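Tokens in:
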């Protein structure tokens, strides 16, 4: 049983989790940093517990304070949302040791997927296709040079411990490799405290297509189809849609089955996402697994009609998966855009300050807004500047696109820089309308989008 759920997060995802918990009759406990005292998630929860600092390390990342808050509030379960401690195996263990239920996978599964090199070795064993590359323990420049020669340039260096698009370096030619390794190591060490690298063939303008999976405690595992997240800026997602335009059912099934194989190989439980790169020939390659709820989960909810947070909570309570693979719907089309406080005129620098104007329209049919802010809020430089997500769905991609445009036009942001205008141009770009997507889309069309 879960009777009282503490949400170890803030912003839109905290509000999103509260909504489902409330609908299931579960009481909610918010936590808040010193600058979030009056934040929306605090007001929407049934109870709220103060954390003692503003910085993430003194608040939403502080395990001791979070566990104390859970104990003091009488919570019996913790939902970590995404980001912060959601993929931290030490937190998963600490929650279990405190006798609480974590809404997430076992620590061992988080650990297995937390290191990109180790995860790739595991996936190769499970028969999941990988991008040709090198993820060995011999970290000498010579080992990387041999691998790069074998694979062929361009290649991509990644931090084994990496995430968030940080620490990746494209290497075009053999004579650039040594210098690139040195600089990638420095960056990886600074960002993740770990300088191990791996190398992959750099695919030319692939698509990013990911599979949502769910597994229960009884060994059942299903996939809830795919999301196309190819529209990225600097390897960070900006817009996501489902299903992936043009993806044929046999390929969807092959990717879904590979994802389920991957999840089974590590004894996965709960919600997870397998990220793949898809090339123009229809070959797909495992990139990484995210062992948590994704930012873009609403597009999957829209095409399936399911509530993914509800599924997470039911699985955490020990219930079996609510549906079998054959019963999982796929209907219509859905698109989400991420509305950020950031300045497109200055290289999308995160913006902070007062959100002087913020108006959300009443959503019409096939429209949804997941946000965590209100007019007058102070947007803090300490946290991710995501204001919210606008989601639309409809019978087909074009109806969905029109509904999302309408929703975005009726959403007003002022007094702070935002990417609203950028998103409006993106949704109206002829190449986007035509559905021709790959990870180079924004770079290629930058002149018209900025
Ligand atoms: P992170 O964990 O830092 O977000 P990922 O490994 O998930 O990094 O990759 C993020 C993005 O970088 C992908 O969605 C894709 O656009 C690009 N990318 C990653 N690996 C490759 C590759 N081998 N070839 C081309 N693009 C890649």
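Residues out:
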């Amino acid at each position: 049983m879960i009777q009282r759920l503490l949400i170890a997060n803030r912003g839109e995802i905290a509000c999103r989790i509260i909504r489902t918990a409330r609908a299931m009759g579960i009481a909610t406990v918010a936590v808040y940093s010193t600058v979030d005292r009056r934040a929306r998630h605090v007001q929407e929860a049934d109870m709220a517990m103060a954390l003692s600092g503003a910085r993430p390390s003194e608040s939403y990342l502080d395990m001791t304070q979070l566990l104390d808050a859970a104990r003091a509030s009488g919570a019996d379960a913790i939902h970590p949302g995404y980001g912060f401690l959601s993929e931290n195996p030490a937190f998963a263990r600490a929650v279990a040791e405190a006798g609480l239920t974590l809404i997430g996978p076992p620590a061992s599964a988080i650990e297995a997927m937390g290191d990109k090199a180790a995860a790739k070795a595991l996936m190769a064993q499970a028969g999941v296709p990988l991008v040709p590359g090198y993820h060995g323990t011999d970290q000498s420049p010579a080992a990387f040079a041999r691998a790069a020669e074998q694979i062929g340039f361009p290649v991509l260096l990644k931090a084994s411990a990496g995430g968030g698009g940080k620490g990746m370096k494209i290497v075009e030619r053999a004579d650039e490799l040594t210098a690139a390794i040195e600089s990638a190591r420095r960056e990886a060490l600074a960002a993740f405290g770990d300088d191990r690298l791996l190398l992959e063939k750099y695919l030319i303008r692939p698509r990013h297509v990911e599979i949502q999976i769910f597994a229960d405690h009884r060994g059942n595992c299903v996939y809830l189809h795919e999301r196309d997240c190819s529209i990225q800026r600097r390897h960070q997602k900006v817009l996501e849609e489902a299903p992936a335009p043009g993806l044929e059912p046999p390929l969807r099934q092959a990717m879904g089955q590979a994802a389920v194989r991957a999840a089974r190989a590590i004894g996965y439980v709960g919600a997870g996402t397998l990220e793949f790169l898809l090339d123009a020939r229809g070959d797909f390659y495992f990139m990484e697994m995210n062992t948590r709820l994704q930012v873009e989960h609403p597009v999957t909810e829209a095409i399936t009609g399911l509530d993914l947070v509800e599924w997470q909570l039911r699985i955490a309570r020990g219930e079996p998966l609510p549906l079998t693979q054959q019963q999982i719907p796929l209907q219509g089309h859905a698109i989400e855009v991420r509305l950020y406080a950031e300045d497109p005129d200055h290289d999308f620098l995160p913006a902070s300050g007062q959100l002087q104007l913020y108006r959300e329209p009443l959503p019409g049919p096939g429209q949804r807004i997941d946000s965590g802010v209100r007019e007058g809020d102070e947007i803090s430089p300490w946290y991710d500047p995501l204001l919210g997500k606008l989601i639309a769905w409809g019978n087909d991609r074009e109806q969905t696109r029109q509904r999302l445009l309408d929703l975005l036009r009726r959403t007003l942001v002022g007094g702070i820089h935002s990417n609203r205008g950028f998103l409006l141009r993106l949704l109206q770009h002829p190449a986007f309308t035509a559905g021709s997507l790959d990870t180079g889309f924004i770079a290629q069309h930058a002149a018209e989008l900025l």
